[in-house]
């Protein structure tokens, strides 16, 4: 099944985990803007240096940088049969740009999955992840900033996708397997 999916949800909702599982299930690549930035930061590239000055503070990387990166990645051969986009779009301008990128490729989105969870659960998960992974942007202050940006700029985007009939809302609380089953059931029901 070819699927062009966006997976949305607040930090700690389990987007990355579910994106990887869905990618395997659907046979399409999971594309995470956060992972691409982290790989560039680790590799010391020019993009990485620029990105880090924003990611380390929990701020969004400027749209022109992120948009160009996504356009390049989504246009690669392995994404021709579908993809799961994790971490993009994150603001209204990126929604417009994603539509343009896909229109230029002669295609469009099939579904947008929103994983939901309340802030106390998100904070508990992110604090645990901070202990395990030690991500530079998982400090208390930066976590709060990222969640605020999500509430202000990213969460409102789901209503636009709902109006287009693309949105599949899934409760992100529960065992990882259960949540994957819910997403797959939600996608099947939405077809
Ligand atoms: P999280 O969702 O936990 O904040 P991500 O791995 O998705 O983590 O993103 C890490 C950081 O990368 C973000 O805080 C932001 O600085 C940057 N980033 C990722 N995606 C985008 C995007 N679409 N637009 C701008 N910045 C982004």
Describe this structure in words.
The structure is a single chain. It is globular and about 40 Å long. Helix 1 (15-26) packs across helix 9, helix 2 crosses helix 3 (46-55) and helix 4 (63-74) runs parallel beside helix 5. The protein is an alpha/beta fold and 191 residues long. It has a 5-stranded parallel beta sheet, sandwiched between helices. The model has no long low-confidence stretch (mean pLDDT 96). It is built from 9 helices and 5 strands; from the N terminus they run βαβαααβαβαααβα. 35% of the residues are buried. Adenosine-5'-diphosphate (ADP) binds next to helix 2 and helix 3.
Unique ligands:
adenosine-5'-diphosphate
- Cα distance spanning the termini: 11 Å
Can you give the mean pLDDT? 96
Helix content: 55-70%
Describe the biggest sheet?
Answer: 5 strands, parallel
The number of helical runs is 9
Query: How many β strands by DSSP?
Result: 5
Regarding quaternary structure, how should these chains be classified? single chain
SSE pattern, N- to C-terminal: EHEHHHEHEHHHEH
Radius of gyration: 16 Å
Structural class: alpha/beta
Point out poorly predicted stretches.
none
Strand percentage: 5-15%
Q: How are the strands of the largest sheet arranged?
A: 2-3-1-4-5
